[in-house]
Amino acid sequence: MKKTAVAVCTVLAVLGGFVLVLFVGTGLSRPAPAGVCTPGTALAVGDVPDGQIAGYSGEQLANAATIMRVGAERGMDAWGQTIGVMTAMGESGLRVLDRGDAAGPDSRGLFQQRDNGAWGTYADRMDPARSAAMFFDALNKIEGWRDLQPTLAANRVQRNADPLHYADYWDAAVQVVTALSETDTTDDRAPGHRYDLGPVKPHTQALAEEVGARFDLAEIGGYRDSAVDAGGHPAGLAVDFMTHDDTATGDAIVSYLIAHADRLSVDYIIWRQAIWRTAEADKGWQPMADRGSDTANHLDHPHVNVTPTPSANAETGPLDCLAATTAGPAGPATGQWVAPVDGPITSPYGPRLLFGSSFHAGTDFGAACGTPIYAAADGQVTYAGGPHPRLGLTGHVIVIDHGDGIQTSYNHMYASDLLTRPGQHVTAGQLIAVVGNDGNSTNCHLHFAVYVNGEHTDPEPFMATQGTRLG
Known about the structure:
eight-stranded antiparallel β-sheet; alpha+beta; about 20% strand; 10 helices; about 475 residues; Glucose Permease (Domain IIA); 22 strands; Lysozyme; 3 domains; disordered N terminus
């Protein structure tokens, strides 16, 4: 069983003249596949077709339809519904099993839920609808589950010994969910709309729904014909995310919008009396004149304008989104280099000016404990164990020799989460460990370092020369 603690890290970043607090690791990391889908949109279920879909038929498809319906009733979007179907595929093959296995002889039902007091009665576990409801209720309690790879989100609930067990079932789950879905959504007010913004453009609504769901916002302003920005609120191209005195959430929203500006069709953002334009991103934040009040100066809400025409990379709907995703790690062909973990950079290489005069000889990535760590390139494992005194690494450490004087190291994992051993040959993208919080560490994260001829070097430009962008 892997550790399932989920941590929230905070880092300081300077954008223009502003210091922003960014929350990463659970809710706001660089998204896994979940990040490309719009939260808040559930799929309605149509008739169960005859024949097979991805090898499933009859009772299995009926059970998948039940999982989807229950997911929508429990507030799940299309992403969550598909995770539910994927999980049941991996646990029971979409059948209500009245038996367990060697690891869990008391497991029962679609989700193989245990008789341990956490999963209701025997009748609950054997009932497709009730067992699905228990699964979705548990999933919804996992902080940042939409930012996890689907297999990891499922594993947070199921606690399978292999966190990647469910990845093999994602493509089939997408096929089944797509085939069982109607074109309409389950929301009676408007398709997939949680927020009533008035007559705004569809891509304006989509941005509001995604950001609102991600940050659990209660109030978003949309269309206002009385607003003075003719190309903004009156045109249905602007939204206000009302954060009031919660500056940290406002900062986090702004950071997310900037990171996804192209996909979300962001034209410009106004926040804390400054403006950031996508077309002038290299100029950073530019100060604005004092307009008097906190609201006029956008101190109590980030304002976002979208482009009149959606970006070519904007999503068109939940089914299109699901069809474009993959649940597994992007393991490239042998000989290439890959990012070692899916997560944002929380502490770069170099002097730590905010933490005394220490030098940080690697790059830290914020990621939840249990997130997979991959070998950055082909090589041979030369060390896998406790602290590495010569390299100054604490916690549990893996070192890989890639030849030509190049080594990489990975640390802060727990002992039980080292999935390789000294002498083993690994390939780029191969799973070697999962993120932990061991050693000199205050939050779940990966410390990744690169050494050339025995000397540490900045991983970001090094990996860039190998054709791989970090963070």
